[in-house]
Design goal:
With about 400 residues, the chain is α/β, with parallel strands linked by helices. The protein folds into two domains: about 10-175 and about 375-390, Glycogen Phosphorylase B (Rossmann fold); about 185-370, Glycogen Phosphorylase B (Rossmann fold), CATH 3.40.50. It is about 40% helix and about 15% strand. It has helices at about 30-40, 75-90, 105-110, 135-140, 150-160, 185-200, 220-230, 255-260, 280-285, 300-310, 320-325, 340-350, 355-370, 375-390, and strands spanning about 10-15, 45-50, 60-65, 65-70, 95-100, 115-120, 145-150, 170, 205-210, 235-240, 270, 290, 315, 330-335. It has an eight-stranded mixed β-sheet, with helices on both faces. Helix 1 crosses helix 14 and helix 10 (about 300-310) crosses helix 13 (about 355-370). The relative contact order is 0.13. InterPro entries: Glyco_trans_1, Glyco_trans_4-like_N, Glycosyltransferase_grp1. GO terms for molecular function: glycosyltransferase activity. It holds the Pfam family Glycos_transf_1.
Length: about 400
């Protein structure tokens, strides 16, 4: 990707949204992706991550070779001002902005010679009410490259801003395969057995959901589907891991509705409030089937990859970028969101009744992750792009 910029160095500065501290066990997937990508990239180029400071964090620190610099968060304008002061001290060659196109014009004006990269994680911040089509177009003019995590998101953005199409590149996300390990190995089986014993579910067949408890995630449809599942598989139990907000167990109106709906199948649904991401691998290992019943387009769906890395077959909605992750009939099943409850129950039952099928699809998922969705591969692709862009300016 050609650029006319004249960067001052090969230092990569990553600007996080400011919504959550980084690193943090109670952040969104954006901060988790930044942390893992930065740790892989730092062996190839100097990396500095800029973000919001939590009360328990130092202003500066180095973790796994990555330099973290933190600033207070007092609203978007003040945050960008603090971030800009940090960037001025660092003289980066590349400024990578995470999921906030509105940051771009200010940074372009202040650093006209730096390579400006926008990394998009979802449709949320390129759509109303966050941003108008006109403002988005103006923001994207400032970017030298726009990196998205799926072809779905690429096409979505191309339709919105055709003039930016030549800048958009798809880079898939990854998963930490040292943390999310196969449940089919001896070690994995031991960990799974211990966790299931702790939860007193040794004799149950576990359907697992992990994610935010918001209507778009479709958990209400999954609870309805469970009513049909338990008629034919009484040992089935749905474990719902998550809450309405990141890092909070706050009970919203929608969460209350889910709890009420679950009472109709008492003993077959368990709610587990927000779990830190570091704890997630042991929860995924207990699952026989992993379900992602989203009813709104998801750009990628990192939880699908985490389940596949663990060897758990996935039943997910046939929407958005999920279709690029889950191979229908090979690593799990994709269901029609227009007939979601009937198709969910059918596919869940098919898997619960057949352990050999669960293992086959699970092991196919592990292979697919190794081929496409590791952080090492994600970093290799990103580093190659940035090296090429810097090479054109004789900085590599």
């Amino acid at each position: 990707m050609k650029t006319k910029r004249k960067p001052q160095s090969n230092v990569l500065v990553i600007v996080t949204p400011g919504s959550f501290p980084i690193p943090s066990g109670s952040s969104s997937s954006v901060e988790q992706v930044v942390e893992k990508t930065a740790e892989q990239l730092v062996s190839r180029m100097p990396v500095v991550v800029l973000g919001r400071k939590a009360s328990y964090q130092p202003w500066k620190e180095i973790r796994h070779g990555v330099s973290y610099r933190r600033v207070p968060y007092q609203g978007r304008s003040a945050y960008i001002s603090h971030i800009s002061k940090q960037i001025s001290q660092l003289h980066p060659g590349i400024i990578q902005v995470e999921n906030r196109p509105l940051f771009l014009p200010v940074l372009r004006k202040r650093y006209p010679q730096g390579i400006l990269s926008l990394v998009l994680h979802s449709t949320s911040f390129i759509s109303p009410p966050y941003i108008s089509k006109r403002t988005l177009r103006l923001c994207l003019l400032a970017a030298d490259v726009i990196i998205v995590n799926s072809h779905f998101l690429k096409q979505f953005l191309q339709r919105k801003v055709p003039s930016a199409a030549h800048k958009i590149i798809t880079h898939y996300l990854g998963v930490d395969v040292s943390a999310f390990t196969s449940k089919w190995t001896g070690e994995g089986l031991k960990a799974r057995t211990e966790m299931r014993k702790q939860l007193n579910i040794e004799q149950r067949k576990i359907i697992l959901f992990v994610g935010r408890l918001i209507p778009q995630k479709g958990v209400h449809h999954l609870i309805e589907a469970m009513k049909q599942v338990i008629k034919r598989e009484p040992s089935a139990k749905l474990v719902i891991v998550g809450s309405a907000y990141y890092g909070s167990a706050k009970v919203t109106k929608y969460v209350k509705q889910l709890i009420q709906a679950a009472k109709a199948i008492h003993g077959h649904v368990t709610f587990i409030p927000y779990v830190r991401h570091q704890e997630m691998p042991k929860w995924v290992q207990i699952a026989d089937v992993f379900v992602v019943p989203s009813i709104c387009n998801e750009a990628f769906g990192l939880v699908n990859v985490e389940a596949m890395a663990t060897g758990v077959p996935v039943v997910a909605s046939r929407i958005g970028g999920i279709q690029e992750v889950v191979e229908d009939g090979k690593t799990g099943y994709l269901v029609d969101p227009k007939a979601i409850e009937s198709e969910l129950s059918e596919r869940i039952l098919q898997l619960l009744k057949d352990e050999s099928l669960r293992r086959k699809l699970g092991e196919n998922g592990i292979k697919r992750v190794d081929e496409l969705f590791t952080w090492q591969k994600a970093a290799e692709v990103r580093a190659s792009l940035y090296s090429q862009m810097l090479k054109e300016t004789a900085l590599v």
